[in-house]
Design brief:
Strand content: 5-15%
Structural class: mainly alpha
Order of helices and strands: EEEHHHHHHH
Largest sheet: 3 strands, antiparallel
Strand order of the largest sheet: 1-2-3
Number of strands: 3
Helix content: 25-40%
Number of helices: 7
Distance between the termini: 35 Å
Length: about 150
């Protein structure tokens, strides 16, 4: 459902990690039952607690769980008490309406205001995203030794 979405998120590791799980917060608005519509918080706890070795999780495991939240089997196994966005959960029963709403959020996630940060942005994140001019993109691709049909 979210395949064309461009999503920014943060992963915060507490000082007592791995005893306590990291928190994940989406900076991009997203219509998903496991993401709080007001704060962007992703409910990761329940998925990790039910594993045999929760203290051994590394960043790639966390990213795997985030990726998994978008898969249909995950959405189909959700229960009302597990979700942070009750509205999105209620729409899951009506696939056409759910897909329509997800597509609206997907389109918004691709807009310049969602993709690029401005100097007045209130988001506190480590990476700042700005659009590149074609000649700047070519320079970056050459520096990375990446050759595409778009690079010269």
């Amino acid at each position: 459902y979210h395949q064309d979405s461009l999503l920014k998120f943060t992963i915060m590791f507490p000082n007592n990690y791995p005893e306590c799980l990291p928190t994940v917060q989406f900076l991009t608005d997203i219509f998903h039952p496991l993401v709080d519509p007001w704060t962007g918080a992703y409910k990761i706890d329940k998925e990790l607690i039910h594993t045999s070795r929760p203290k051994e999780y590394q960043i790639h495991h966390i990213l795997h769980f985030i990726k998994g939240m978008f898969k249909e089997p995950t959405l189909n196994k959700l229960h009302k008490e597990d979700v942070l966005n009750k509205e999105a959960f209620n729409y899951c029963d009506n696939q056409m309406s759910f897909v329509t709403l997800v597509k609206q959020f997907t389109e918004l996630s691709q807009s310049p205001s969602a993709l690029y940060d401005t100097s007045g942005s209130k988001k506190s994140q480590s990476l700042w995203f700005t659009p590149l001019k074609p000649n700047e993109l070519d320079k970056v691709l050459r520096a990375l030794s990446v050759h595409t049909e778009y690079s010269k």
